[in-house]
Specification:
The chain is an all-alpha fold and about 325 residues long. The protein is about 75% helix and about 0% strand. The protein has 14 helices and no strands.
């Protein structure tokens, strides 16, 4: 039973980023209910710890799916459950991932200081040498950048560099518990954008797209949300440099994906506002606005599933 549940956890960890968020949420909720049933009947048997960890990972994946759906309250509920499982199983890495999800929600909601606090707290829980510790340091870096704390951004970047250097050679580079490795820590381009270093942001984003996303974009498309986010950061940086055509091209490419999710749509909205402010009369701006509205009103954006019960086990 534990082995079959672990296989399901591994499956969804690898595929959640490429599946429609609402559909995968419903599937995960079914598996999570199954896991809760196993826990209920396990009592204090020896395999219970493994069941608790697997159940916690499912709660983490539900939080990720809920975040992609824009269902922040549900995401936080599942994060809290993952944290409880982490304490029960004495498995701190799980709490680190929950902290990262909450930090990302705060960042996309425009609350960088709260995001930085959550990121720092997560780093104090998750050990150095884990993927989540490195991603939390990177998240703290872009949170500081959004808050205008340049010194804090540089300090967090140094921690992120050290954390990435401590990662094992076989670190996962795909799936929900992976890290995209490039010449820079994750979110470096975003951080540069927020501190006004626009040309550097363009260069860094292009490097990430060519190194990480171009090969998979031509093949399996395992990271459509990450690819779209990178394109939109590129579009925002190009817009800040006054390059309307390049900005529009990046925005259009980002909105051409088949997996709309809340984080990239936040950035797409930001690009729409920037273009409207800077190039209000340009036909390209009107065309992007229409494309953005079309993506925003797509049916998949409204087929959101909430928890079927307030009891999460």
């Amino acid at each position: 039973m534990v082995d079959s549940l672990s296989e399901l956890v591994d499956h969804y960890t690898q595929t959640i980023g490429a599946l429609p968020p609402a559909a995968v949420y419903d599937e995960l909720l079914t598996v999570r209910s199954y896991a809760n049933g196993l826990l209920t009947h396990a009592g204090h048997a020896r395999p219970r710890t493994d069941l608790v960890v697997a159940t916690g990972w499912l709660s983490h994946l539900l939080a990720v799916a809920a975040c992609d759906m824009g269902e922040h309250a549900a995401a936080r509920v599942w994060c809290s459950d993952a944290e409880r499982r982490s304490v029960e199983a004495r498995y701190p890495e799980l709490a680190g991932w929950a902290a990262l999800t909450k930090a990302m929600i705060a960042w996309y909601q425009g609350q960088p200081r709260q995001s930085a606090t959550l990121s720092a707290r997560g780093q104090s829980v998750a050990a150095q040498g884990t993927v989540v510790h490195a991603k939390l340091a990177s998240q703290e870096m872009r949170s500081a950048a959004m808050a205008g704390d340049i010194d804090g951004m540089h300090r967090s970047r140094q921690r992120a560099v050290a954390a990435i250097a401590a990662l094992p050679a076989d670190v996962p580079t795909s799936g929900a518990r992976s890290i995209a490795l490039s010449d820079d820590p994750p979110y470096t381009a975003t951080s540069l954008l927020y501190v006004g270093r626009y040309q550097e942001a363009v260069t860094a984003t292009n490097r990430v797209i060519e190194t990480i996303y171009r090969p998979e974009a031509r093949q399996r498309g395992e990271h459509p949300s990450g690819y779209a986010r990178s394109l939109l950061i590129l579009g925002l940086a190009q817009a800040a440099l006054g390059r309307l055509d390049e900005s529009i091209a990046a925005g259009y490419a980002a909105l051409s994906g088949q997996r709309p999710a809340w984080p990239p749509m936040v950035l797409a909205d930001k690009l729409d506002k920037v273009l409207t402010q800077q190039h209000q009369g340009a036909p390209q701006t009107a065309e992007y606005h229409a494309r953005y509205q079309e993506a925003l009103s797509a049916p998949t954006r409204h087929q959101l599933l909430l928890p079927k019960s307030k009891e999460h086990g």
